[in-house]
Amino acid sequence: MFEPVASQAMHFNVSEFPAFGESPDTRVIGTQDVGKTAWEEGDKLLLSISFESGKKQGYTLEYLSGVWTLNDKVLAISDITGVLALYAPDCEIKSDGSIGLASGKLYGMAEYIPAKTTVDGLNVSISFKDVTRTYSRLRIAADAGQELTVATTGFTPAGATEVATEPYTLTANANGNAFLYGTFALGATVSVKTDDGTALADYTFATEKHPEGIKANTSYALNARLIDLSPAVEGEEGLYLTANCYIVSEAGKYKFRATHKGNSNLEEHALTGIESVCVLWESFGTATAPNVGDLIKANLKYESGYIHFSTADVYREGNAVIAAKDESGNILWSWHIWLTDQPDEHVYPSEFVSGGSAGTMMDRNLGATSATPGEVGALGLLYQWGRKDPFLSSSSISSSILAESTITWPSAVYATVGTIDYAIANPTTFIYTRLELENYDWCYTGSESVDNTRWTTSETAKSIYDPSPAGWRVPDGGFNGVWNNAGFDGVTDAYDDSKGGFLFDISSPSTTWYPLTGCRDYYDASLYQVSKYGYFWTASPGGKYRVYCLYLNPLASGYPVNTMYDKGRASGLAIRCVKE
Questions:
Q1: Residue range(s) defining the domain that contains residue 294
Q2: What is the tens place of the pLDDT at every residue in 242-262?
């Protein structure tokens, strides 16, 4: 569709703007942004008109109130021999009538699109319809308003004839995107940093990644965001959304605050003496063992109170643990990185309060990469009660075979060495107990005493050992617990033998899946009872020395769901988090 232009003598018709598209693989990086898609108020086309005399005269067409308006009257119309029309926001008309780069601008920061022009008497058609760009677009995904320094090699900017040698200073738009326009040769590199020099992204247009070369008229995307997993609490100075578990749902660079233990912001829980950080283990939660770096790259760093890490370039779901160490290599604290899509919130209706809610639960177990019935990814991870660090579950929904990981896990140790400090310093070591230690606890407090504060109920603040992500916690149990209040103990027809679990009806969205996870035995740390029974911790102490849990037993005649069951603290059970 052509739009007429108002002019004193000549008439200009301009076609629609040729928008850049984005391929499906680039849309998943940052916020999708196709860039400019149509002419907008104030857009300008630069015209260089040639005459028989050999002279050139420059003009500007400006898009005002839906009409293209010429800035001056064209003289000697009959002497026109050609019209060059160009959309190039960073260029200007020069004194000799030619078009060149505007003062203070660099080629490559904006489009440079010559149009096809046809002169027919007083009518000039300016068409972009069949114009094919000879260059590519690189969309750099960052944070909205962020200033970026972008250095390149092997990059010839749109409108230029030589390779760029100067770095670019770009500002991300409201969608968090900045753009470069030009031709990238095979082997070309792009380095993105913040204005203070923090590295955000480095990319090489390598042959193995682009076997068909770098295509013109194609949009590429580079992820240069540094995502803060522990942002400040709005309106609360000095408070941050810290936790022992962080959810990562896409490839990229991340950081989280490591100045305090767990979810605490209190000085008494300050974390000091960090000299190094590392990935302790990675797992897909399946029978396939990942290679080191398949989930998280090894180039971690600790800087200014934050731990920085990057996922693999190709995002994969699973779980990993990052540890901070002192100068002697002793572990000071560790964090669970949960690589999965963001869990949905499931509202459980109250059985006792009409129209009320028993609680809002996650749609999956802590550490699960799926909420789909019958998938091994729905099993999640297992925890000893009161410990913040996870242990592997099964690699199968039908057998008790531990999932593979990047490490050989240390042998379990006896509870006589089990202390809070030992558990923190040895997050991969299971601490077992025996009957002669009557409290069934991994934390050795003597045969007659127990500690009920490692995980806490909703009556008190969330403890620093709670393994849940920010905004979630281990649920209350027993009579006042979420499952009892939701009437789960009265359900008799939810078991699905073929998929190995229970599908419960709830108010929103409609159903929720609980797999038969089995457990890690308090007696020797072995995994058993997968596909036979399901156990899910609560934060509420139960019978003597024990803690309430949700117990699923399809073999129990008439009562397959028990919301008042309890287990010893040394057992390794699954967790289904409740929203705080």
A1: 228-339
A2: 999 999 999 889 999 999 999
